[in-house]
Amino acid sequence: MTDFNRSILPDAVRSNGATPNPWWANAVVYQIYPRSFQDTNGDGVGDLKGITSRLDYLADLGVDVVWLSPVYRSPQDDNGYDISDYQDIDPLFGTLEDMDELLAEAHRRGLKIVMDLVVNHTSDEHAWFQASRDKDDPHADWYWWRPARPGHEPGTPGAEPNRWGSYFGGSAWQYDPKRGEYYLHQYSRKQPDLNWENPEVRKAVYRMMNWWMDRGIDGFRMDVITQVSKTVDKNGKLPGEDGSEIEDYPVGEEGYSSPFSWCSDGPRIDEFLAEMRREVFEGREGYMNVGEAPGITPDRNEFITDPKNGELDMLFLFDHVGIDQEGSKWNTVPFEVRNLRTRLAAQQEAVKDAGWASLFFCNHDQPRVVSRWGDDSDRESRELGAKAFGMLLHMHRGTPYIYEGEELGMTNAHFTSLDQYRDLEAINAYRQRVEEARCQSPESMMAALALIGRDNARTPMQWDASRYAGFTAPDAAAEPWIGVNPNHVEINAAEEFDDPDSVYGFYKKLIAMRHNNATVATGEWNLLAADDEQVYAFTRTNGDDTILVVVNLTDKSAGLPGEVAELLGDGVAESQILLSTYDAVHGVKSIARGELARWEGVVIQL
Ligand code: GLC
Ligand code: CA
Questions:
Q1: Which ligand is nearest to the CA of 49?
Q2: Which positions fall inside the Glycosyl hydrolase family 13 catalytic domain (predicted)?
Q3: Within 13 A of 144's CA, how many CA atoms are on the CB side?
Q4: What ligand 1 atom has the least distance to the C-alpha of 78?
Q5: Distant-in-sequence, close-in-space partners of 101: CB < 8 Å, separation ≥ 6
Q6: Which domains does the chain have, with CATH numbers?
Q7: Quick one: pLDDT at residue 21?
Q8: What's the whole-model pTM score?
Q9: Which helix (H) or strand (E) covers residue 270, if one does?
Q10: Which of 224, 296, 362, 423 has most ligand 1 atoms within 8 Å of its beta carbon, as the pocket-test mutant?
């Protein structure tokens, strides 16, 4: 195994003395998808010991916080986002002792650990759900149980309480013969939604969260947390229930209506989040919480993350990663700089005076940005595109998130056949859209999966050029749970680690800038050239210190927008170039010529 133990950053660099913001204002978070990070026992699945063995690499990269996707006990229907015991580790990943060791080893290196918290739903194998199947059990009301539609035989087609479809395909209602009723699941049928209206549910969740905080974790990434409050009428009914006009709700091409608007940012969200803050975090220090927030607008983000409202520290908004889909996730449309800028600008503007932003392009649900909006067809284009999108993201105001392998420029999987996919979303979507509803051709669906499917982010971490990429031993007993990308021979950590010009070297610089440059960390954000079709430009200002960020997000050269040229006047000196996706000399020439090369980005000290 390559030795990545080097240059651990001193604590002083991580502190944020320059600004009145909390510690995480200049922190960088790194997301690990444990199943795909590092396998140590040859079963083809990453594990906790594997993560511990790679902490020196993360310390070298310079990140401050590690977010772990779920490692709790789980039947793994949705790779751990279906939890059957919140207070245990799944044997696939290790033991509670392994978790304690990971915490201690991370803390020793100044790294914090944030765990995923999946409490919109549990697994259907969780003891709470099993108890809830009995109407006389104290847990009877812990989930969204509903009788069949009046006049219909329970369990027969059309008897579902309403026409909601699951985001993972099929009806959002599952009939349980034992209870004789249906339960709501926005996600898979093995992920029943918890009933947050019931105070006992909330208490149990907070108790569990306190247990983890007391064990020494540093906060949570809260899975679809803004979907825990549902919109019900004054009788507690969901839309279409009880024989009301079910057909009034628009039905999509797959034959279902969407629960989304009734389940996102519901009426009691602020109340629940504030209660959680009081019950779990009051009196604690040094933690951070980030909520996954599909359907939350930039304005609502401001409110929820404003410290005076005592809810969450930051949220993941999704409007900016929806720019290449229309109607359905599987109906993809081309990337346009303008659309990305409009969405990100709205997010930045909304938190100018209060609240905070998180910054991300990649996670375990999103394809790799370099394949999605960049160009991964050859080495040079790939590296330039990875740097351009990295620079753009990391120079915004907010807390940046790096998803494992993003710092190497890892690409989409480029799977060509359905049996290479593992994700239930992909497999269900294919079945439903191609075989059942027949609303998409097989070719078009395979193309959409290859572009936007979640498994693109889930292929094993590429550590080196060996068979299985160093993710697991070359002679491991089991194959990796999902195919290793063949491009690991070229794109891997061992190859990039010592090269300052690699994508990895570039990410180290981005991270260091956030630690060391108060303007990057917290300076005001102001948009320039709002209409440019190729170049995304803005300034960051902190007192009299101003930096300019200008990035060409296309594979063609681009004229410097007028507004940017004006600001730069006679051109710039090499010493003003803080960072470039090419190099400083190239940047100076491009500015002088008034033209940026393809994927050229420069950060300039004004
Ligand atoms: C979130 C997770 C995703 C999961 C879903 C259901 O969106 O990020 O991976 O499938 O919630 O838990
Ligand atoms: Ca393993």
A1: 2
A2: 31-458
A3: 30
A4: 10
A5: 48, 49, 52
A6: 23-120+199-229+265-496 (3.20.20.80), 123-193+231-261 (3.90.400.10), 523-605 (2.60.40.1180)
A7: 54
A8: 0.95
A9: helix 269-276
A10: 224
